[in-house]
Write a structure and sequence with these properties.
By secondary structure, the protein is mainly α. The chain has 6 helices and no strands.
Length: 214
């Protein structure tokens, strides 16, 4: 029994040291991931919003993020905002249709544009997943062009939705909420496009072979 007690006193500090060291390593890696996010977000139009949105995902990573991973996360954030915006606008449209509100056509048109934006962003995530992070991908220019086109379309959809409410007397609170949600969607999508463009530029410089000059 005495030997067991002595052994316990010897092992306990070692166990505590191991746990503390492991925790310190994880925190350090997460800090590196956040620092990476902060530096990359400075290249976007809305850096503060970019950091707030993407830092939420830092806890899922215990190693340094890559540009490819960051672009994928940013796209997923955009899709999440698009889906939540669609859910809200769908509710407003249903209520206006039920009450035969005069603003139903404008809200319905906005909903159509948001639906298209959801489709475009979903395509972007699927297409980005086809890009191999390591190694050369001969189809990269095709994949990158598709993503950039679809994201630009999603941005246009959001802009058209907001413009569609200009001058309309939709209920003040409802109108303000729709515009706020769509504007936020527009901003996070703009940030995602900037981060994808940065990833694409780096990928081209490291992986895509330049044509030989004859």
């Amino acid at each position: 029994m005495a030997q067991i007690v002595k052994l316990s006193f010897f092992l306990l500090p070692l166990l505590i040291f191991t746990l503390v060291r492991a925790e310190h390593t994880v925190v350090h890696r997460r800090s590196r991931a956040r620092a990476f996010i902060e530096s990359q977000c400075q290249t976007t139009l809305y850096p503060d919003l970019c950091v707030r949105c993407l830092s939420y995902y830092v806890s899922n990573f215990t190693k340094t993020l890559s540009h490819h991973q960051l672009a994928q996360i940013a796209l997923k954030v955009s899709l999440s905002r698009a889906e939540s915006t669609r859910a809200y606008v769908t509710g407003v449209a249903k209520e206006l249709r039920r009450t035969k509100g005069k603003d139903y056509p404008a809200v319905k048109e906005c909903l159509s544009q948001i639906n298209d934006g959801v489709d475009q962003l979903t395509n972007c995530i699927k297409e980005t997943g086809k890009i191999k992070e390591d190694g050369e991908t001969s189809d990269f220019p095709w994949h990158a062009s598709n993503v950039q086109t679809w994201m630009s379309t999603a941005l246009t959809d959001a802009t058209m939705c907001i413009d569609g409410f200009s001058g309309r007397a939709i209920g003040g609170k409802t109108k303000a909420m729709i515009k706020a949600k769509v504007l936020n969607l527009q901003q996070v999508t703009s940030n995602a496009l900037a981060l994808f463009n940065r990833f694409a530029a780096r990928y081209r410089s490291f992986h895509v072979k330049k044509p030989k000059v004859l």
